[in-house]
TrEMBL record:
Pfam family membership, one: YceI
Protein name (Swiss-Prot/TrEMBL): YceI family protein
Stored InterPro entries: Lipid/polyisoprenoid-bd_YceI, TTHA0802/YceI-like_sf
Parts of the chain that traverse the membrane: none
Naturally occurring in which organism (per UniProt): Flavobacterium humi
Amino acid sequence: METTTFEIVTAKSNIDWTGRKVTGAHNGTINIKEGRFLFTEGQLTGGNVIIDTTSIKILDIADPDTNAQFAGHLASDDFFSIEKFPTAAFETTAAKQNPNGRYLLEGNLTIKGITHPAKLEAEVNSTGGTLTLSGKLTLDRTLYGIKFRSGNFFKDLGDTLIYNDFELDIDITAKNTSTEILNN
């Protein structure tokens, strides 16, 4: 049985985030710190992604002072508590290729030390020594203790309400770092 390990090339991989509120949305990026994917007999069988929460950036706010204030708020305990939790992680527990050729990755997502099951449908391509993976993950932030201005926990928020779901658009490039052939 042939197993190939693909290490994430962080400089060629990114995560775009979008958070919505009653009056609009904010968006930005967050970096991948490290990770890898495993292919066995040409099929994706596992992997993990470590996200660097300290790298969160806001792209839609041009004023430097307002941007810095918002970034500080996202770093605070109201949101991601990055001093206590400088990383988040997704650990794949199952990978199944759908009839449409895309993969359904099931796994455990940990944010702020809180772990919940998560699913990601992703386009995965492996050509030569390069793997690409892209997909969108929609998460309920309140499951991870991020309750700031959530209608589930606070009343009469009016137009200051922040929706619970946020989206992560994931684009990963990884390189083949090893191939093992195991005899059964």
